[in-house]
Every structure is written in structure tokens, then in C-alpha cells.
Write a structure and sequence with these properties.
heterodimer, A: mainly alpha, MetI-like fold, globular, B: alpha/beta, D-Maltodextrin-Binding Protein, domain 2, 2 domains, nine-stranded mixed beta sheet, two-stranded parallel sheet, elongated, Phos-bd (chain B), PBP_domain (chain B), Phosphate transport system substrate-binding protein (chain B)
Amino acid sequence: MATEDSTGDQLGRSAALRLQQLKGQLFEVALVAATLVGIVSLLVLFAYISVDAFRPGTASPAWFLVYLGTLVAPTAAFTLYARRRPAVRTANAVAFAAVFGGLLLSAVTYAVVDALSPYDVFIYGVFASLPPMLVLAYDRTTEGQAYTGPLILVSILVGIGVAAVVDGPISGPLGIAAEWIMYFGLVTVPAALLVGTLTASRRGRRTGAVAGGAVAAGGLAVAGASIATGANASLLVVLFSAFVVPTGYVVRRSVRTNPAGRVGLAGPFVLLGGALLGAALVERFGIETPDTFLTPTLVLESWDGLTASNAGVYPQIVGSIIIVGFMAVLAFPVGIGAAIYLEEYAPNSGFRGRLATLLEVNISNLAGVPSVVYGLLGLALFRRTLGFGTGIVVSASGTLGLLILPIVIVSTQEALRSVPDDLRQGSYGMGASRWQTLREVVLPEAIPGTLTGTILALARAIGETAPLVIIAVATTTYSPPSGLFSSATALPLQIFAASANAKPEFRHGVVPAAAVVLLTLMLLMNATAIVIRNKYGRET
Amino acid sequence: MASSHDADTAGITRRKSLAAIAGAGALGLAGCTSGSGGSGNGSGGETLSGDIRISGSSTVYPVAQEVTRQFAEQHSEVSFNLTRDGSGGGFNNVFIPGDSDMNNASRPITENELQRCRDNGIEPVEFFLAQDALTVVVNNEADWIDSISLEELRTIWSPDTAPELWSDVNSDWPDEPFDLYGPASTSGTYDYFIEAVIGETEADQDIRSDFEGTEEDDLIAQGVSGNRYALGYLPFAYYTNNPDTVKALSLSEGGSDPVEPSLQAAQSGSYPLARPLFSYGHMGKIQEKNHLQAFIEFYINEAAKDYVAEDIGYVPASQDMVDSNLANLEEAIAGEYEYSA
């Protein structure tokens, strides 16, 4: 009896166990399904947009074969080769970051400075950078200066203020100088100083001076050669200083520090070379290319509302970059400052503690307020109260800055919170003050998290449409904004307008192509965030 | 690809070389240099410079967009700023506060708007630029109907009658419920339809409320093409560019012969739903800005060109309209213009 009882018991138990297991498996399946619904529908959407923009169906098979042979196969083979060898992979990653980072930096710098006028940017650049450098030099040469830190900040602000006053009178006479000289001052001089300092710190002052001098001389040589051949000297100077110099520096350093991975440096050049070779072959043999809307015209020309193949969004792209760039200048110091106060200084108890908690709850809620509401706030604040014109860069940047402020604050707070308290206590234990602890211990630890959060906020801002519509930012302009107080324009607005165009090739061709451009801009920002985070993450 | 830009400005040359070089990347630097020898400034005797801000109707936007593009190509120093705020939105938020130089409108300026303009010291200068034919559309498979009278349209859309079924309006039509699509109440098209078709109503609303209202013409066409018993109305420009998606109805008024929607019919006045498109200039700014005067003159003349009909789908201005617009411009420059309805 007893044995029978226990077997029945066991049977019952194992059935219950199996039921439990089944329940667990079903739950897992449900979770996988939930994950897939979101991801798959997003992928389908992106595929749909990309197919409309690229129109791969219109290309001849030969076109696919050519690029498979020159671009896809060699790059894939190289990547596979590099994946197996860690040294090669590291060199490959570094070379990719240098080449594409350099190209991106050159393009953005040139486009933005060209839009804002190189002379003005040069004047502001000189006045904002010379005073702090003088202060820094003074700090280096004399001992025990306690006030140079704050003084650097003040000197930058004063410099910008002075620049605003003298810009008018100076820019006239400065206009006699060629444009490329401004770019030389803005890009080549900093590049030469950077290379010089970096080399000096590793291999002595003399070599540093030679390296810096070589960069400057190279810049002059490029300018001279391009003037002689009639090419665009400004652009070539920028490309030389922000693309060739960093790439050369990184390649040289990589060869020195990582000789085993030397081959990896060829990675980006395999990709670029393949693309160029493919283009040359297609051109040479007259192979039918896809009838795509994602053309150089789209990225480099201005808008045409009648002929889809002539429509371009260059002013809108540069406008978006300028708006978001100035927004970052406005919102990041304020947001990060507020987060540091709330996390590190704000009292935890008493009446003021409750006030701080109330503030934090409000900020968290503000992060979820619809963007249209921020548009109304921007209209009320910048147009009605401060009396700025509607739709100028300052209003647009300010409105978007308010929009991302809560996101910046919350993500910075999160990053500060994740710094272990032991580190703070240890620092206090060594006799450091609160400010010293913050500056030397907490902030460096929190930088990766802060940067990730803030750059993701930038990516959100670049796609915002509703607040810009409310403050009447221009949909169509034919030149990018020429200053902070001139008419702004932004890419999402033109996409929105084109989606109402009567011609179907706009709605189903130009709109998806421009959306791909916007997505690319956003992905580039996210990629920058990841690269910066990984770099800092590794060092600390 | 033949370049359509005869005025190759410095900016465009620079951008082109940016394209060439960014594309060529590293190898491009070593090898080729793009040989786009900068051709100096194009045509255009006097150099005009400054900015021009145009707000208002999204219906007029395609015309303004094309005209400004051409003007900007000839005068690279003039920068434009175009927004699509809707006729009323443009007046209220941009033009009346004094921020824009011109406001496009797909209906005449209202009493209230005029009053507020004048309170702010702005005299709006009217330019009657073109006309748009409103098109009533049904599903391609709606084989029982080819034409409709304005009276029937009024019965369908008026809040006083608001019939459920097609057969409630005309016994020859099927016993099926209506599925109605139209522009949202923020649109100038909506305002015009209310005024021209529905008129005064006994109910305290302008139009029956059970229809799909949207700002996007595309969605109206999609809605109508998705249901055999749907009916909607659209700007003619949208219909001409997408003729296969929906079927346009001929219109009759007061027992007259039905007229097919066309630009000719709208121009001759035989098509009952042709609405005027305007642009209003800021007189003070017109007097102040030379480049604005030049642009408005260009705008007035361009609005009479064939491409307004062929590429945009509106009825171009007649010579009479051009003459009276130019007269208005001259009065405005002299500071003597005064708006009267």
C-alpha cells in the first residue's frame, strides 16, 4: 500500500513539475513574441522606406554583380579575416573611426562654416580661444594660481562678448583675405597644435614642434596647389587638416604601437576603394544604375517642388545641424549643471529636501510632455516675451533645448548615481573637499553615461517636427541659415511638406529618400555616442 | 544629366566640389581634383539682396515654392523663407504680428483679420494669383454616378439633412451608407467648401460631423479608393497628378448641364467650384525693400505662366488679373494702396 501510495504521489508530483515547466516555456515564448513584434515591424518599416528610396528593382543584374565583386565581397572577406585576429581587428576599428570620423568632421565643419560665413566664425573663434590659452599659459608658468580655472571660463565668455562688438568693424577689412586663410586658421592651426602637443608629450618638444610645423606647412602646400589648379582651396584645406592629418596620425601611431595588426589599417580603404572602383566600372561600361532618389543631388542641392529628380535638401540638412549644434551649447551646460546639483548638492531632508524631491519628480514628468507643448512654450517665450523673430535659429535651438533639458538632466543624474558611493567616501577620507571629489573622482566616472544620454537627446532633437512647425521655422529655403539670428530651416519640415506634394514621385520617392538621410544623420550621432562611450569606458 | 542651372552660383560650385571630393574620399585626394572652374555670377543686371519671408496657405505653397526657386536661382543674394501654416494660421501667427512679408491665402482675407492687420499698422496688399478647381471624387467602381449637382452635394454634407444612405438623396443610387472624406477644419479648402456648397445652416455647426477630416489629400484619396460607397472632395491639382486612384464627378448647378472638372472650365467660369488663390503683401515692407518689389513683380508675372497649369495643376492668372495685380503693386510702392473687399 505504502509503495503504491508513494508512486502515485511521485506521478502526481512529476505531472505538476511538467506543468510548471510548460508554463515557464510558454512564458518564454510569449516574451520572445513580444520582442519580435516590435523589432520585426520596425525592420519591415525600414525595409519599406529603403526600397522606396533606393529602388533596387530598377538596377540591372550587372550593376549588382559589379558592386558584389568590387565592394561587398572584398569588404566581407576582409572583415572575416580581421575578425579572427584581435590585433588586426583593433587596428581596423581605429582606422575606420579615423577615416570616417575625419570625413564626417571635414564635411560638417566645411558645410557649417561656409553657411555661417568663414570670416565671422574666424573672428569668434580667435576671440573665444586666445584669452583662455593665454590664461592657461600664465597658469603653467607661475605657481599656485587658484583662480585660473574659473578665469578660463570667464575669459571665453568675455572673448565672445568682445567678438560680438568688434565683429562688424573687423570683418570688413578681414574680407580682403582669401577665404581659405580663415579655414586655415580655424582648422589647420588647431590640428597642428594638437598634433604638436600630442607628439611633444610622447617624443619630446623638438619633435612636437617639427610635427606641428609639418602639418601647418602641409596645409599651406595644399592651399597653394589647389589655387594653382583652380580647385576649391577652402574645402581642400579642411579635408587635409580634419581628414588626412588625423588619418595619417592614427595610421602612423597604429603601425608603431600595434605592428601585428598593421594589415587592419587597410579596412576603410578596401571599402572606399571598392566603392570608387565599382563606380568607375559602372561608368566605363555604361551599366544601368538603379533609378534611385538617394542621389548626390538630394544631399547637395536645394529644393525643387516640381521635378523630383532635382529636389535637394542641402540647406535643410545644414540647418538641422546648426540648430541642433547650438541647442547642445545651450542645453548641455544647464542640464548637466542641474543634474549635478540635484544629485550631489541638493539636501535630502527637511523642507528644502522635499522641495528638491518635488523638483525631481517634475523634471521626470517634463521628460514625457508632448513636443507640441514645448513648441507653444517656445512661441510664448522667444517670440512673445523676448521678442525674437519667429523661426530664427536662436528660437528653434532654445525651444528644442527646453525639450531635451529633462532628458539630459535625468540621464546625467542616472550616470552620477551609478558612481559607487565608496569612491566618494574614499576621496573624502583622503581629505578631499566636496568640489575636489566631484571634479577628480565622480565626474570622470560619470562621463560615459552622461555623454551617451546627452547624445541620444541630440538624436531625438534632430527629428523633432511639431515644435518647429509651431514656432514657424521655414520649410523651404534655398540657402542654409547664415547666422544665429537668421531664418532657420530643418530637414523634418521639408519631409513633412513633401509628403503633401501632389505628385506621387515625391510622396513615394523623395520623401523616403529624405527620411533615409535623416535616419543616417541620427544613426551617425548614435554611433558617435557609442564610440565616445567605449573610448572613455575602456580608459577608466 | 544636363544641368538645368544656368546661373551657377559660387555656393553651388562649392557644393558640387564637396560632392566630388567627399565621394572620392582618400583616393580622390591623391588622384583627381574636380575641375569645376568657377563660372562667375550668372545673369541679372542689378544685384538684389536681402531676405523675403512668405507664410500662409499650403494650397498656394506649390506655386510660391516654384516661383521662389526660380527667383533664388537668378538672384543668389536674396534668401527666402517659406512656411506652410494654412491661410488663417499664417495670418494669425506670422503676418499680423509683422513677421512675414507676404501671406498666401486660398480665400480672401476676413474682416477680422483685416481689422487686426490695421490695428498693427499693416495694410495688406491683395494679389489675385491663380484659381484652383475643387474636385468631388468617388470610388472608381461607383458605376451609378458620373455627375452630381451642387444641391445634392449640399444635401449630403449639410448638418441639417445629413443623410445616412445614398438612396436618401437620390432614389437611383444604392441603399448603402455614405463614407465621407474631406479636408480638416483648419484647411482653407474646408472654408471654401462650406461657403460655396453648404452656405447657412440651421444647426450650430457648419458641416455634418461624421466624416473623416484630414490635412493630407493623399489620405482622402486613399480613403475614397478603399470603399465603393465613399465620397470626398480634393484640390484639382491632386486629382490631375493622381488620376487613376479615384473618379472625378462632373458638377451641375441649378439644373444646368454637368461640367467636367478642368482648368479650362474653371477659367471660363462654367465650373461651379473654382476658388481664388491670393497672396497678401505687407505694404510697409514693400515700400522698404527693393528686392521684395522685384520679387512680387516676378511672382505676379510667373503666376500667369503655363507651368502653373501643366506642372502644378492650378488655373494661371489671366492678363487682366496680372494687370490689376501690377497696378496694386505700383500703388503699394507709392504707399497709396488701401484694401477693399
